[in-house]
Amino acid sequence: MFLFNKSANCQVGGFALASIACILCSISADLPQWRVWYLNETVFSERSVAFVGMWRVCLYNQSSKPDNARGCHEYSYHDNSVPLDIHIIQHLLLIANILGLIGTVATIIALQNVYTGKEQKNVTYNPFITSAVLNIVASSLVLLAVLCNYLSVIQEAGIAFPPSFQMPLYPPHQRIGIANVVASLAALLFLGSGIIFVSYTNPVENEIFPGV
């Protein structure tokens, strides 16, 4: 039978934050709006906007009908046309997702042990320390991916897409896309959950070493 240990209530909240962070991290990796390229009429027959993501680039013709406005071109992990910075971000997001999932599993196990009283014998051991480390590292990786993409945009880096994509090497103008916001939010949630897990205090420790 589960013991309702109030000291772990915050860690349940941390588990919720970490779970949402994993979802947002996965969503951001799949979104194409990491970079928004504004293309003028000199390159295309009509004004267009391209969304450059980690796994595909999508073209939106502003004057087209909504149901036919978008065409996407996928590129694989081994595609030579993909620049190094995108490959780095792919790695960072993939590792962050894996660490987040492992951290979520570790949190479930830790919560089960705490609520069943299995971890109360060792007053100095924090059962959430593994989850904390994994989530904090995942947060750092996602933030690094966002920073890497941001630097590429402000430096106006170009991408040599295959000719079949009908994309220029350099756009006339580009900006940060919404995927960066989603990824940044995921990183903050990972970090918040890690801090919550680190702050766990064993109730037995509080009884043995009460605060003054």
Which terms summarize this structure?
single chain; about 210 residues; Butyryl-CoA Dehydrogenase, subunit A, domain 3; 5-stranded antiparallel beta sheet; 5 helices; disordered C terminus
Architecture overview:
The chain has helices spanning 9-30, 84-115, 129-154, 178-198, 203-208, and strands at residues 35-39, 48-52, 56-61, 70-74, 173-176. The longest helix is centred in the middle third of the chain and has 32 residues, at 84-115. The protein is α+β, with helices and mostly antiparallel strands and 212 residues long. The chain is elongated. Helix content is 50%, strand content 12%. The protein has a five-stranded antiparallel sheet with strand order 4-3-2-1-5. It has one domain (8-201): Butyryl-CoA Dehydrogenase, subunit A, domain 3 (Up-down Bundle).
Indicate the topology:
Blueprint: H1 9-30, E1 35-39, E2 48-52, E3 56-61, E4 70-74, H2 84-115, H3 129-154, E5 173-176, H4 178-198, H5 203-208
Helix pairs in contact: 1-2, 1-4, 2-3, 3-4
